[in-house]
User: Fold this.
Amino acid sequence: MTYDLYHFMKIALKEAEAAFREGEVPIGAVVVSGGGSILAKAHNSPIALNDPTAHAEILALREAARRIGNYRLNGALLVVTLEPCPMCMGAALLARIDHLVYGAADPKSGAAGSLYDLSADVRLNHRFKVTSGILEQQCRSLLQTFFRAKRKTAR
Assistant:
């Protein structure tokens, strides 16, 4: 199926904006079924949930799996505003997603090509397509605004 990646990234950005308003690092994620319907959407919530694993991707993958009643999300699209970290890429691999789309690259901890590339590692038993740079500037700008404000209040 052909997806409107920009449409789904805009939804992920709305989730990221919700995280921003809550004082969480502004990252949003959306899981889309192979048929094109939204299965789940989430934003970073480790502070609110007191859970270091409460990244947007993890929360969205959990909800999508619950919704379909299967931990395998075969054919699914995962759309995220920031390149996933190794933990989130591991979850995406275990969920057997078909395609990852992200906005901004993360050179410090990105595991979809920047620092590591777990999506294409032939030593693992699953691989998936990765598309980067969708609404990249909007995704990056939201993160930069958040961290500028954090640094300013820390002074």
User: Anything to note?
Assistant: The chain has five helices and five strands. The beta strands are 28-32, 38-43, 77-82, 99-104, 129-132. The radius of gyration is 15 Å. The first helix runs from residue 5 to 21.
